[in-house]
Amino acid sequence: MSSCILKSKSKIFFAFLFATMLSFGAYAQGESEQAEVATKGVEPGSTEGATVGGGADPAVIDAGAALFKNNCVVCHSAGTDVIVGPGLQGITERRSTPWLIKWIKNSQALVAAGDPEAVAVYNEYKKQAMPSFNFSDDEIKSILAYIEAGPASDVAASVPTTVGAEEGGPGNIGTDALGSIGSYLDIVLVVLIIVLIVLVVTLLLITSLLKNYLNKNRKLNEYDDEVVNQRFDFSKVYKSKAVRGLVTLIFVVVLLDLAWGTAMGIGIQQGYEPTQPIAFSHKLHAGEHQINCNYCHTTVYKSKSASIPSANICMNCHSQIQTESPEIQKIYRAIERNRPIEWVRVHNLPDLAYFNHSQHTQVGGIECQTCHGPIQEMDVVYQYSPLTMGWCIDCHRETPLNTEGNEYYDNLVELHEQSSQGAFTVSSNGGTECSKCHY
Ligand code: HEC
Ligand code: HEC
Ligand code: HEC
Ligand code: HEC
Ligand code: HEC
Ligand code: HEC
Q1: Domain residue extents for the chain
Q2: What ligand 6 atom has the least distance to the C-alpha of 268?
Q3: Which of the listed residues 389, 392, 397, 435 should we mutate to test ligand 6's pocket, taking the one with most ligand atoms within 8 A of CB?
Q4: CA-CA distance, 91 to 145, in Å (whole number)?
Q5: Integer angstrom CA distances of residue 366 from 32, 171, 407
Q6: Bridge partner residues of 182 (DSSP)
Q7: Any signal peptide, and if so, which residues (predicted)?
Q8: CATH class of 58-157
Q9: How crowded is the C-beta side of 394, counted as CA atoms within 13 Å?
Q10: For atom 32 of ligand 2, which residue has the closest CA?
Q11: 343 Cβ neighbours under 8 A, 6+ residues apart
Q12: Residue nearest to ligand 3 atom 41, measured at CA
């Protein structure tokens, strides 16, 4: 009776152990998936000097591409697809340049003046007024040059023309390396597991062969018979002291690791994903429609804060697009009442810490995604990075400073190379001193 209770107790004990290990496995895997996302989220650098058609100056085409991506793609493709307005492929053959300049500056004026081409296209597209653009003639010509150059120039154009989005910006190094080590370990693990399974199967085959052989060809005495034909008794395995000791040790280590992780996680908002007052989607705007981050976060390359767009920025497009949508009506109501939209803040460092966007995006050349994750795939923004002091400092230790062509650093780098082997990182330049981040 007592042995029976003991048995069921150990069964519960082992079932519990097993469940804990499984959930830990899932947790670790979740982390490695995140690391993968981080690697994928970083956009590749632009291919400089990509070949462009049309013979126009590539710099002009690039400028045109940027203007087009920022202002026109939401309603037009450079190919033949109709989005809100017509596809613009071949537009310079259909219309004269002076007409196009007038149209883009103020299409409504042309329509009102009774220009036949303007009236025709306006009626064809159900009298949706295209917004006016306050561009110079040269800017409009650059857009036309981009449209003329066609899809071949899209290699260069598909990369947002943000400053500092250079090849393999320093921020990518850490995540790339981590990602590849991670996948390498995965492969080793899978191979090991396969080898183990093959071993177990082979051993089982051998024992059953031997058993058959002995039973058939030998006269076994009672003792041998018991050994050879014994049933495999699982309870013997888990009652053995060695196995119990080992399993308990693993269990304690796992528990400690989890407890440590939780303790370090106190006050961390990683994963925080509040519901916003308007169902604004970055996946739709920054992903599908490829609107540049700094079209809305206008100060992210210039100042400490990235800024959240005002309702007026939304109206650049939503005075025309989806005007009937209840979500868009909320923007109109905010403007009528002269109140800002009450977005819920996602990222928030405590007041004691100082963080500056332009220092990282403009000067450091770090991509938004390195810190914010794949924003262009998020319907609802969540906090991707832990934003702890350790997180800031780890990156400062690992990331080499871009000192190329900056005289200010020449002496410092030389001094550094005399005293140390490693790269000249942000921390070599004092980026881990308390006063840099604390007021
Ligand atoms: C809010 C949507 C919207 C935006 C943004 C927009 N357009 Fe348009 N565009 C239209 C619509 C709709 C038409 C069709 C004419 C009409 O209804 O006014 C049109 C027509 C045109 C035409 C005339 C096409 C033809 O076949 O004659 C040109 C050229 C043009 N747009 C260029 C541009 C350029 C360049 C930009 C960016 C600087 C731009 N548009 C931005 C909506 C837009
Ligand atoms: C069309 C405008 C628009 C574009 C383009 C845009 N955003 Fe946003 N972004 C917003 C608005 C509005 C919010 C506030 C609502 C929310 O959190 O979803 C926001 C919030 C954010 C936040 C969270 C801010 C907080 O509260 O802590 C981050 C981070 C962010 N954006 C990054 C980006 C990045 C990176 C890109 C480019 C890939 C981008 N945004 C493109 C409008 C935009
Ligand atoms: C550069 C142009 C542009 C700007 C600026 C812009 N949007 Fe949009 N928005 C779009 C386009 C294009 C769509 C998709 C329309 C479609 O798919 O029918 C869209 C769709 C939406 C939708 C979904 C509407 C629905 O019911 O399907 C919401 C909500 C929205 N935008 C909110 C905002 C908010 C809030 C802002 C300001 C922070 C903003 N947008 C700024 C171009 C823009
Ligand atoms: C080195 C990491 C890092 C990079 C790169 C970065 N951010 Fe941030 N971002 C942060 C941190 C940290 C905060 C929280 C700041 C605070 O609370 O003071 C933040 C906050 C924000 C906010 C909320 C408003 C604000 O200013 O506090 C927006 C919007 C935002 N980031 C957009 C962007 C965009 C767009 C880019 C790329 C152009 C970008 N960020 C690049 C770390 C980064
Ligand atoms: C992904 C990497 C990365 C992360 C994460 C990061 N930084 Fe940085 N940081 C940099 C780089 C690179 C520079 C150097 C920019 C330059 O001057 O070229 C820098 C510079 C700085 C500087 C200026 C240092 C000096 O010597 O003048 C401060 C202050 C700073 N970071 C604060 C922070 C804080 C606070 C956080 C965390 C909330 C943070 N950083 C997170 C990469 C990072
Ligand atoms: C690269 C930037 C950076 C540097 C360098 C840095 N810190 Fe911090 N520190 C932070 C950030 C960001 C936070 C807020 C983190 C959080 O809320 O978890 C923080 C938080 C703290 C806190 C408050 C902890 C808490 O739980 O509220 C203390 C204390 C602190 N730092 C002390 C220091 C000291 C001492 C040094 C110098 C040895 C230093 N820090 C250097 C970025 C930095």
Answers
A1: 19-43+170-264, 58-157, 282-437
A2: 18
A3: 389
A4: 11
A5: 22, 5, 21
A6: none
A7: 1-28
A8: mainly alpha
A9: 11
A10: 375
A11: 276, 277, 308
A12: 314
Whether the CB-CB separation of 67 and 143 falls below 8 Å is answered with yes
Per-residue pLDDT of the chain (439 residues; tens, 9 = 90+): 444 444 444 444 444 444 444 444 433 333 333 333 333 333 333 333 333 334 578 889 989 998 898 888 878 888 888 877 899 999 999 999 999 999 999 998 999 999 999 999 998 887 777 888 889 999 999 999 999 887 555 543 333 333 333 333 333 333 334 445 556 778 888 999 999 999 999 999 998 888 888 888 777 777 777 777 777 677 777 778 888 888 888 899 888 877 776 665 555 677 888 889 999 999 999 999 989 999 999 999 999 999 999 999 999 899 888 889 999 999 999 999 888 899 999 999 988 899 999 999 988 889 999 999 999 999 999 999 999 888 999 899 888 887 777 777 777 777 777 777 777 888 877 888 888 898 7
Report the candidate in 401, 432, 438, 398 with the shortest Cα–Cα distance to residue 416: 401
Cα separation values, 363 from 44, 170, 275, 373, Å: 19, 11, 33, 20
328 token code pair? 């868009």
Q: Does any ligand 5 atom lie closer than 6 A to the CB of residue 38?
A: no
CA-nearest residue, atom 5 of ligand 5? 392
Residue 363, both tokens: 């000067």
Residues within 6 Å of ligand 6 by CB: 267, 349-350, 353, 388-389, 392-393, 396, 432-434, 436-438
Ligand 5 pocket test, candidate residues 304, 363, 426, most atoms within 8 A of CB: 426
Three state DSSP letters for 10-29? HHHHHHHHHHHHHHHHHHHH
Helix or strand holding residue 156 (H, E): helix 154-157
- C-alpha distance from residue 370 to each of 365, 367, 391 (Å): 11, 6, 12
